[in-house]
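Board notes, transcribed. Complex of a protein with beta-D-galactopyranuronic acid.
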Amino acid sequence: MLGAAAAGLLLSGCDRKLGPGRLTSVDTHPVGYPTVEGVRRFGELLRQRTDGRLDLNIYAGGQLGNERDTLEITTFGGIDFNRVNLAPLNSIEPLTVVAALPFIFESTAHMRAVVDGPIGDAILASLEPHGLIGLCFYDSGARSFYNTRGPIRTPEDMRGLKLRVPGSDLYIDMVRSLGADAVPMPLDEVYQSLAQGVIDGAENNWPSFESGRHYEVARYYSLTRHLLAPEVFVMSKVTWDGLPPEDRTVVMQAARDSVPYMRELWDTRVEQSRETVLASGVEVNEVDPAPFAEAMTGMWQASLTTDAQRTLVDRILAMRTGAS
Ligand code: GTR
């Protein structure tokens, strides 16, 4: 595996120690994708604010492996920064499950208010005992189901479909509770698996549906918008511990300052991806989310196993305005 070999190079230190303070960051998405460009902005701020003492190399497009594998490498310092979805963190830290629950956020504004405030800080801080410093949240839009068979209008339409999910128990339970078969697999295997009929569909936001070219094979996109789970930008605690306190402050601030830029790029990209997909003739349908939310009530409760999780959920629900 190229990813593992490349990561081995980093671990041996022959690449990342080439220049003083040259740090590495990885992303499963390609150059140009808003998460990658958000991290690039972070790197620029880092360089400017340390007069070039700290600099960043970004390995985009999953060059160093999938999110699960690279996260593991990040925890022991072989990679310095990682931009991931909440899904691969679900098995590492229970508090991350809370923001990944289907239908927990009533709107993007609600999600942003939650992750930009004390609840978001608590989730980010919960990663530290696992060897990761949570720096900030980025947007990830709304995830909906797409497939090769036909439009999904009700949970009944999902019965028996083989749907790819990221490797997270929460996602597996979510898809099962809707009557479909959950097939956990890394993102970079989805296109091929759709094309070969190994799976019937998957779920993701407009930009990932478009960027991974999944829409070329899965011609039905049904707007369930079941998840508004944000992306997370994390740092290896090994690297963090090796920085003087003033550099840690710069890192934290630069990450947070990259968020508005990322969100601007995100909103534009959602529109562009939507246009590309629609122009290709994909059949897109609106969905009444109520029966989907209803079918997921049981898995919601089953996913919350600690009081700390339940308290956060109550606080998130209390921040709903009912405006959406
Ligand atoms: C994307 C997300 C990735 C990855 C991917 C997936 O929306 O940006 O980090 O989690 O979904 O489904 O694997």
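The mean pLDDT is 94. Residues 4-97+107-140+230-272 form a domain with the D-Maltodextrin-Binding Protein; domain 2 fold (CATH 3.40.190.170).
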